[in-house]
Design goal:
This protein has a single domain, classed as P-loop containing nucleotide triphosphate hydrolases (Rossmann fold, 3-Layer(aba) Sandwich). It is 43% helix and 16% strand. It has 14 helices and nine strands. Strands 5-3-6-2-7-8-9 form a seven-stranded parallel β-sheet, with helices on both faces. A two-stranded antiparallel sheet has the order 1-4. α2 crosses α14 and α8 packs parallel to α9. The longest helix is centred in the C-terminal third of the chain and has 20 residues.
Length: 293
């Protein structure tokens, strides 16, 4: 198992970029915070979160990945053993630790040139739902904690659980926007309607900055006619909100979590890994100019 390192300044592949107007635009306002969310399960949220984090780190961005799912899959998939963490996002939400104290590096990521910080989750986080209910400012605990480290990162990516829970609400209240990974299938469109309604409610009542940043088509197989048709419908309806990058169905991306690595680190040459690096570049290009207001 990869050794864990209590995180100081970002190491390895995520040193601050030396050039590029988009990157500097992102830096100029502190971290851009994004939830990776979809109320439908099994659509690749965790795969998207860890591979986008690794892709952004690979192109020189400073990244913090926050795991808000009690299953801890994004934590394990980032080379961090959730069973050996002294502190986690649970402690941060209950204000018994700061992000600076709880975040970790994994030497697996650093060796792969894609080092990013991990604020991990484990089974303890399931209890946070009950414990947060009676606490003040319960839906903005994560936002308050992130404010203390926002200047240290270019991107913060939050992996949300599939249900609309207090944990997901903390993520949505913290974020500037939502990245929605989705398969190009009929039922995925129904799930998208539910998510859009949730985002509208949070935008209206809790976080006026929240918006959908874009829809990411994942597990895409162009040989399947239905997937191509749904993809065309998405582009027709959501226009520029659909990312240009498409993540193909790829066995190497599916194998990577069993090695405790993002696909971008596990097999950089795989088509899925290369697609996530392209997506990271598109994110920087898309987000950068919008911060210059």
């Amino acid at each position: 198992m990869s050794a864990l390192i209590t995180a100081g300044p970002p190491q390895g592949g995520n040193a601050a970029p030396s050039g590029g107007s988009a990157a500097h635009a992102v830096e100029s306002v502190g971290a851009r915070i994004f939830c990776v969310a979809n109320q439908k399960g099994g659509v690749g949220k965790t795969t998207t979160t860890v591979n986008l984090a690794a892709g952004l780190a690979k192109i020189g961005q400073r990244v913090l990945m926050v795991d808000l799912d009690p299953q801890g899959n994004a934590t394990m998939g980032s080379g961090v053993d959730k069973r050996k963490m002294a502190l986690s996002v649970y402690d941060v939400l209950l204000e018994s630790a700061s992000i600076a104290e709880a975040r970790l590096n994994s030497d697996k990521l650093i060796e792969g040139g894609c080092g990013y910080h991990v604020l991990g989750a484990n089974r303890e986080l399931a209890g946070a739902e009950v414990e947060l209910v009676g606490l003040p400012n319960r839906e903005k605990r994560l936002k308050t904690a992130l404010a203390a480290v926002q200047g240290e990162y270019d991107f913060v990516l939050i992996d949300c659980p599939p249900s609309l829970s207090m944990l997901t609400l903390n993520g949505l209240c913290s974020a500037h926007g939502v990245i929605v990974p989705m398969q190009c299938e009929y039922f995925a469109l129904e799930g998208l309607t539910d998510l859009v309604n949730t985002i509208k409610q949070v935008h209206a009542n809790l976080n006026p900055d929240l918006q959908i940043i874009g829809l990411l088509r994942v597990m895409f197989d162009p040989r399947i006619t239905l997937q191509q048709q749904v993809s065309d419908q998405l582009k027709a309806h959501f226009a520029e909100k659909v990312f240009n990058t498409v993540i193909p169905r790829n066995v190497r991306l599916a194998e990577a979590p069993s090695y405790g690595l993002p696909g971008v680190v596990f097999d950089p040459a795989a088509k899925g890994s290369q697609a996530f690096v392209e997506f990271a570049i598109e994110m920087v290009e898309r987000i950068g100019p919008k911060t210059q207001k």
